[in-house]
Specification:
Blueprint lengths: L2 E13 L4 E9 L5 E6 L5 H8 L28 E3 L5 E7 L13 E5 L17
Antiparallel strand pairs: 1-2, 1-4, 1-5, 2-3, 5-6
Length: about 130
């Protein structure tokens, strides 16, 4: 499996801000819409508290309001998520394999929060070449 390190925007979490379990990540597309790109593996407790302190609950008008997220490939179960303000950038390790929408096929691994970057610094979401 070939992996790379990249950045993504945190748009939602599983668990709560008091006890994060995983991060739901996104990138803006070329039309300025925040698109879901994937989710992290379970986050270690120490990283969870650090990241949680950098997140804020979503205010009115979150781009993912009303969306549902699958618990996994082929699963009909949906994740219980808490939307957060899409302001925090996370550095993650991802498998280079992507689906036809450009989403990561496998969970990302959180390396660290990047409060020094803004969402504008994150590469745009692009579909993989066919």
């Amino acid at each position: 499996m070939v992996r790379e390190t990249t950045e993504a925007i945190v748009g939602a979490v599983t668990g709560s801000l008091a006890a994060l379990s995983s991060l739901l990540l996104g990138r803006y597309d070329n039309d300025g819409r925040l698109q879901y790109t994937g989710r992290t593996t379970t986050i270690a407790r120490t990283a969870s508290s650090t990241v949680a302190g950098l997140l804020a609950p979503a205010r009115h008008g979150h781009p993912w309001k009303g969306w549902s997220f699958s618990a996994g490939w082929g699963s009909r179960e949906t994740l219980n998520v808490m939307l957060v303000e899409p302001e925090l950038v996370a550095e993650v390790g991802v498998d280079v394999a992507r689906d036809t929408s450009g989403r990561w096929r496998h969970p990302a691994r959180l390396h660290r929060a990047r409060p020094d970057l803004s969402p504008a610094d994150v590469p745009h979401m692009t579909a993989p070449p066919r």
